[in-house]
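User: quick one, fold this
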Amino acid sequence: MPVVISLLNSYSGLAASAAGFVIGNMVLILSGALVGAAGLFLTMLMCKAMNRSLANVIFGAFGQEGATAGGGPTGDKPVKSVDPEGAAMMLAYAQSVIVVPGYGLAVAQAQHDLKKVMDNLEERGVDVKYAIHPVAGRMPGHMNVLLAEADVPYDLLFDLDEINDDFGQTDVVLVVGANDVVNPEARNPQSVIAGMPILDVDRARNVIVMKRSLSPGFAGIDNPLFYLDNNYMFFGDAKKSMQDLTKAVREA
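Assistant:
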């Protein structure tokens, strides 16, 4: 969706430029050309971030493998789950926490509740940061806008290249509704998402993934992160889970 929106934006600029040629308006020609070029440049950047061609993103099926949707073991791959109290204990007594927001956060409109949880952690002296993947969400800058609505300070937001090296020294990573952008399968040369830049959350000491189920994301493939020893699944609606987590952190 972010790629399609950016591409349509580019087309609107080209249409405006063409209209400028028809009516002989130089300002319209130049402004339309700038909008068209900017939209096309952003489109290609996002395709590169997803490691896919533009044609594949628009017309092709991204992945073919399936995953079981459910809050329990998948075949011989058991998962660890955690309740609000358990997650609160991990977060409240950590020294550093990185939040990875995803589309699930936007769907649940849980950004304000997330801010409350992080405010409580900061009051305890926990170092809190937010890791933003360039294609997280459904439009360019979606996560930045979402967190800005909740008054999250901009200086706490870090792009993939700025924060990836920090995961190895982080106590807890809280993944909220993200999937493909944290999928370590991208490091597998045989994977359909091979080479896609990801947030290296699996290298943290502990990971908590807030998600409704084990269902795959847009890529359509299973996420090995869910079955790692240092990962804990926090199943449920993000907004309700955040509200429960806020209460549990206060009482921890």
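User: anything notable?
Assistant: The radius of gyration is 20 Å.
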